[in-house]
Amino acid sequence: MTTKEYNEIVDLWADAVFRFIFKQLRHEEDARDVVQNAFEVLWKQHADIKAEKAKSYLFSTAYHNMIDFIRKQKRLDYVEEIDESAKGGTSDYQSDLKEVLDKALDTLPEIQKSVVLLRDYEGYSYEEIGGILELSESQVKVYIFRARQALKKYLVSIHHII
Amino acid sequence: MKVNLDNYEAFLIDRVEGALSPSDEAELDAFLMLHPAIKEELALYEATLLEPDTTIVYRDKDALKKKDGVVIPLFAASKWLMAAAAVTVIFVGVRFMNNTAPEQSGAAYQPATVENTVPQKDTEMQDENADHSFHLANTAPQQQMAPVREDVAPQAVRPLLTAQGIPVKDIEALPARQLTPRLKAMDMDAMYAYNKGYNYENMMKDVYEPADNNTIVDKWNDALATVNDMSSVLGLNKKQSTDAAASARVKTTSIRILGFEYYNRKRINN
Asked: Could you report the per-residue pLDDT of A106-159, keeping only the tens digit for each?
């Protein structure tokens, strides 16, 4: 990958990879740090990576950076706290499906969240998601299944409250 | 597979995912005709499909972009940086002592790392117009290594590694690697440790895996680029800025330099 191609990757995918990370960390500066670090890694390896492989390399690197970050910061606990406050707010009328889904997303375990975001946001196949997250295709399928079930269950519960 | 009340959810999800075969699609349609209430569930599953929120964007993408050639970074003062610089100066001093005392080391030692520039530091810093960047093509790895004082480097590095969450005891427990003469000349172990920075797991894994020569040469060039970065940290380079990203990079660079030095010394002493 040339420098020009690398810069095109920045234009094409910086938003998408940022969105992927931000939806999971829920913290703009932390998400920026993770994404910036992923691009640094991509740049360091750019001579060895073909442009067509760069996107999945970028997502994979960002994902693993994020996991490292979460472990370091113990942000999982923090996210759970956010979840609790979100659940407490369900008495507010939630008419916007997007907002509801956003909150539902936060209730998912990290891996399910990553799988479903890659699937829905980026349209990756199960095989491609497996490559990015280092899972088998059947594991991806199981996570998708569980994630959709959990999201549906959340929608049903909100529907009842409303 | 026949759709029934026990397994229909998997079929609903597969439909939403677009993963049903035409025959399964037909079977599911027939099942839904018999159980119309389940169509509501299908609608709920369809509602679980997320749409990207395009209002979420990465600001200032240009800061991520690169130019051809070695990028000279930049400097923002921090306590961390001061500590890193101080320790690096200690390393430099040790290396410099070794360079100036060949009768003690018994070898001509000229590693192509940051210390190559440091003996000239005073004069260079007085020259405002000097180009202080390193030239990668002109800095080939040297064939011979002199012993380095083991007692200095690990002690100096320890608090910095600890600050980065790297378990020093585990690193010290690593056995010495057997290198071929060519790889030894390339200083592979050091390059790996250096390049992996503070990602300890990768460092552990990769230091003990074989690598082809291209990888080693790449890592060598990468190392030199990082040394070039470090020269900026130490004030050897005039192209500075107070960019936050640069500050973060400087921090990363510093720990890499230190990791490099640590491994270099450890390997040589083994």
From this structure: 899 989 999 999 999 888 999 999 999 988 988 999 999 999 999 999 988 876
Residue B235 in any domain: the answer is yes
For residue B102, the distance in angstroms to the closest alpha carbon of chain A comes to: 36
- Say if A38 falls within a structural domain: yes
pLDDT of the residue at B244: 52
Q: What's the domain count of chain B?
A: 2
Report the pLDDT value the prediction gives residue A70, as an integer from 0 to 100.
Answer: 84
The chain B residue lying nearest A150, using CA atoms, is: B48
A84 falls within a domain: no
Same domain, A62 and A104: no
Whole-angstrom distance, CA of residue B130 vs CA of residue A83: 56
Report pLDDT digits (tens) over B117-166.
Answer: 232 333 333 333 333 332 222 333 333 333 333 333 344 455 555 555 55
Please list every residue in chain A whose beta carbon sits closer than 8 Å to the beta carbon of residue B222: 44
Cβ-based neighbour number of residue B103 at 10 Å? 6
Min CA distance, A71 vs chain B (Å)?
12
CB contacts of B13 in chain A (<8 Å) are 144-145, 148-149
Residue of B nearest to A147 (CA): B48
Exposure of A45 in the CB half-sphere (CA atoms within 13 A)? 16
Q: Which domain holds residue A142?
A: 93-162
Query: Among residues B222, B196, B221, which one has the least CA distance to residue B207?
Result: B196
In sequence order, which residues have a C-beta less than 8 Å from that of residue A24 and are 6 or more positions away? A66, A110, A113, A114, A117
What does the pLDDT look like over B219-252, one tens digit per residue? 444 544 554 455 444 444 434 444 455 555 555 5
